[in-house]
Amino acid sequence: MTTQAQRSRPEQLGKRLLREHGEVAISSWLRLWRQPLTNLLTWLTLAIALALPGTLIIMLSQAQGLANQLHTSNQISVFLSLQASTAEGQALSQQWQVHGDIHKTTFIAANDALQQFSQASGLGDVLTSLTDNPLPATILLEPVSDDPEHIQQLVQQLRQAELVDQVLVDQLWLQRMHTLVNTSQMAILILSLMLALGVLLVMGNTIRLQLENRRAEILVIKLVGGTDAYLRRPFLYTAIWSGLLAGLMACSIMAAALAALAPPLGQLAASFSSDWQLSNLGVSEVLLTILGSCLLSCAASLLTVQRQMANIEP
């Protein structure tokens, strides 16, 4: 008989906890809609604070993919002096072809360079009237390594060649872009921490006002033996509901922002001969946003209730 009672006790306790939590969750949800305008402004504030760093993080992560895609098209352009002949340029190109740090060389004679430039610029009539070819022969190099230090060492070696007039590294602007991306990562991290602190303060202030409005109710519950854990429960569910709604609103704001930014960023990528497109929110981003919103709201609720509950004593 005792064994059967002991076996049934955990089941009864579980049912009671489920019932109590369900009642508190429903009552907390209904209480939110007693002041819809005030709560809506709070949720909107939280949503904006979440959407701003979220949108920047998504854009930055996808921009890194674009940078890596462009990174594969690195090239070194070596312009020979005007006095260098076609035979000398071809010989130099073949000499560099067997260089250990160079994957491939392409020699472009001066006349071919002039023809390509006239077709690309549309100035064919003007260029044909020139007595001398102003363009030098060019050797295009594809280095084996993508490491910036190795490329700079290779450039220094190429500049020491006798027939070389100028060496241009097409990847220099990509290195600057990578530096900008890395700097942006740190800036977004700092901004995210600042806005997360703002979420904690806004949610904490909202819970504090609710505690003050229910001070008399809390005093009565404490007088009849109510525990702090029982008193924290409705505020915790209020924070969960608020975090859920704020997270959904943040996802809507982020989706709208990414949809508006996708066309101009796609055109920018097309100018670099890339088919990169800015993707909108995925399921993982939506779940992470909602989870982060709920966790921040719960953390603010627990910290505020724990501190304020000690000041409310019968």
TL;DR of this structure?
73% of the residues lie in helices and 8% in strands. The chain has 314 residues and is an alpha+beta fold. The chain has a 4-stranded antiparallel sheet with strand order 2-3-1-4.
List keywords for this structure.
314 residues; alpha+beta; Alpha-Beta Plaits; 2 domains; 4-stranded antiparallel β-sheet; rod-shaped
Write the layout of secondary structure elements.
Layout: H1 2-32, H2 36-71, E1 76-80, H3 86-97, E2 102-108, H4 110-121, H5 124-128, E3 138-143, H6 148-159, E4 164-169, H7 172-213, H8 215-223, H9 228-270, H10 283-309
Antiparallel strand pairs: 1-3, 1-4, 2-3
Q: How would you describe the overall organization of this protein?
A:
By secondary structure, this protein is of the alpha+beta class. It has 2 domains: 22-70 and 175-309, no CATH class; 74-169, 2-Layer Sandwich (Alpha-Beta Plaits). It contains 10 helices and 4 strands. The protein has helices at 2-32, 36-71, 86-97, 110-121, 124-128, 148-159, 172-213, 215-223, 228-270, 283-309; strands at residues 76-80, 102-108, 138-143, 164-169. Strands 2-3-1-4 form a 4-stranded antiparallel sheet. α2 packs antiparallel against α7 (172-213), α2 packs across α9 and α9 packs antiparallel against α10. The relative contact order is 0.14.
